[in-house]
Amino acid sequence: MLEDRATAASSPAVWPTAYPQGYAVVDVETTGLARDDRIISAAVYRLDGRGEVEDHWYTTVNPERDPGPVWIHGLTSEALEGAPLFGDIAEEFATRLEGRVLVAHNAVFDWQMIAREYARVRRAAPVRQRLCTIALSKALELPLPNHKLASLAAHFGVVQQRAHHALDDARVLAEAFRPSLRAAAEGGVRLPLHECRPLTEWAEQPTARIGQQAGGHGAHSGYRPGSWRPSRKRPACPYPNPGRYEEGKPLKQGMRIAFSGDTSTDRELLEDRAVEAGLHVATSLSRLTSLLVTNDPDSGTSKVVKALQYGTPVVDEAAFGQLLGDVEAASEG
What we know:
By secondary structure, the chain is α/β, with parallel strands linked by helices. Helices cover about 30% and strands about 15% of the residues. The longest helix is centred in the middle third of the chain and has 22 residues, at about 165-185.
């Protein structure tokens, strides 16, 4: 069993030549979860090709706005007042990421936060690939009760000292990633690597500093949400809903599509593709939803639960991408 190999964590004699040569295990704490939230601390553990720690680095970051859920990350406005701005640490951060695969727990979130911060300072993060340890634990079939970092740490006997502190979370993840990587190598498991596309097209929008009145949001907000990103408002789908998707048949213009969980392609780019194909992107799931797209049908999110209750068809991102290539035109009249 793969989990037995993972628990043993022995280093295989023959290492897969296709595996990356180095990794940057990353954790960032943020003011929130939205695209206009900011990084307030970051940590990087650099590992060699076999998962051995080379060095580590940590910094707090002044988000130029309210720090958000202090009760979670513990970083107050006072603690961050003298911290460097992201632009001040961007070069050092980049040297830690350069030429390595970014590894994180729920990697799409960390990557998007990092990419947006670099976009704000008109740079591109030097990351070409990312690896999510949630996806790796699934590939290894680890017997975890859930996909929390604490559960992955407990499986490998790693002691978590300060949850939601970027440096300790990165340490815990690095220690859990090493035996995971060795188990993958031992079992010949293909690593779940995903392409990272720098968000350079967002870099031309201005960022407001504390003290500036930014569109009525006040000085505490740091910058206008959306001031550096086009509005996501879309016109109503012009086609009637033809009903539910049926397996083996093409999608049809007007179908209502809902998304749940992480996607390897930036979610908003994926939604844009769906809209361009004539589909209706729904923010919630109802009995009228034609299809739910999720890479984790066992996640237990509200959308997944409702899909099961309503009998809504579910496909993963890869299957949805194929379906997008051949969407049937809406019926006339």
